Every structure is written in C-alpha cells, then in structure tokens.
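Sample entry (226 residues):
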Amino acid sequence: MSLLELHDINKTYIGRKVDSVVFRSINLTIEEGEYIGIYGRSGSGKSTLLNMIGLVDLPTSGEITLEGKKLRSLDDEQYAFIRNKYVGYIFQDFKLVEDMTVYENIEVPLLFSKEKLPTTERNVRITNLLKDLGLEGKGNAFPEELSGGQKQRVAIARALVNKPKLLIADEPTGNLDSASSEDVMRMITRIQKENRMTVIIATHDNYIKEFVNRIIHVEDNNLREG
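Predicted structure, serialized as tokens:
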C-alpha cells in the first residue's frame, strides 16, 4: 500500500478580482521510503504542493488518502492529529521560536501530540537527537546564538522528534552557504537511509538531484516526472 496519494487534485486561491489556479487535476502516488525532489521555478506551486502533501493545506477539490484512508471528511482536530503524528516539516527560514532554547524548540511537537510521553522519555528522545545531529551542548542555547547550519539542524531535530513517517523539507538549504547546504543535505540523506523514511524536498537547486531517487517537476499547473 502506498503511503500517500493525491487523486484529481485541483487547487485555486480565490482573490477579490481574479482567482489564481495553482493545480489542475494532478495525481501523485508516494510510496513508503521514497526520496523525492520537487523542482520548479519560484511561484510554480512547489510550496502549495508540499502543504497539501504535508496536510497543512486542503485542495479545492479532489481526494487525498493516507495509507488508504480518505482524509477529506476529517474535521480540523482530526486533521491536526494526523499531521502531528505522520508529518515532520523543515522550513527554509527555520521557524524557530527565538525566546525558547534549542531543547524547548525541539520539544514543541511532543507537547502538542495527543500521545503524551513522560518527561523522562521526552528527555531521552531529544537528547539522542541532539547527539545524532551534532548539537551536543547546545540544548540550553537560544537560536540567536547559533549559525544558520546549526539552526537548520535544530529544525531537522524538531521535525524528527515525533518519529514521523513523512519528512518534508521546503527549500531547506535556501538560507545557507554552500558548505552548510551540503552538510544539511548529507544529514537528511543519512536520516532517510537509516530510517527508510519517506522524504520530500522542494528546491530549485539542481545539485540536490544527486541525493534524491525520484524527481517531480512542477510546471504549467501540473506535475511532470523525471
């Protein structure tokens, strides 16, 4: 069974004067363990596609299924629960809370999860991520004390802390220098291989093609493989 499927998806943003059509009748199947690169120029709809795949945004019409279950009939609370459980999200601008420590930023998804973990288990999980991602000794630091590459590592740890089945990264190297970009990509690739995790990365950087196993182009309100 596939992990996620998009069936005849249409997406239109309603404007005051003009509606903006982003996608027309797109279909996409994502299997467990795939490592996918989403390519397209700025404004092509990459982020909109990721938001629908990541259950952040709903299509205007069409059906999304997760492990064979249709999601359109779910209410907001059910949708939020599934998103928190299944999806980890990495953003280009990190989206860390500046007045929270590294530890506290990573802990946020656990606090919002309905599957409440004891404090000791949360601590073990976060401590292991800090060690695995090269952030030992940074748990009590604040985002302003970190480099761009370190901030993205914190964002990766936060995305992984709930052990999601699907990891989504929206231009994860967009705010990084070339050395930090390669470091982050190698880290994501290692995580994907070690955990056989489904990973989807949106980007306009061609060099990321050397990391992913499948390429999808976003163009002309549609999707093209290869």
